[in-house]
Amino acid sequence: MQTIVPTAQALAECLRGRLEPTHLEVIDESAAHAGHSGANASGMGTHFRVRIAAPVFAGKSRVAQHRLVYDALQSFMVQGVHALAIEIL
Length: 89
Fold this sequence. Notes:
Blueprint: H1 8-19, E1 23-28, E2 47-53, H2 62-72, H3 74-77, E3 83-88
Parallel strand pairs: 2-3
Antiparallel strand pairs: 1-2
């Protein structure tokens, strides 16, 4: 079974489909974490930053907002995403 390296584009497509954001940036910061825990030899696909705004977040606590993002990206977490920095806008 081949492991698929998650990409910023794939994460963004997933978030667009699940959360219908009004603003979305997904940045692969993996190269900055080379040699750190969870990094892989490719230097990509392990550490991401998500900046997102969506109506679904309205009235929810920060924890609930972050949980929505994590739940949407769960399949990527098991594919090797080690760290996910979330900024709700």
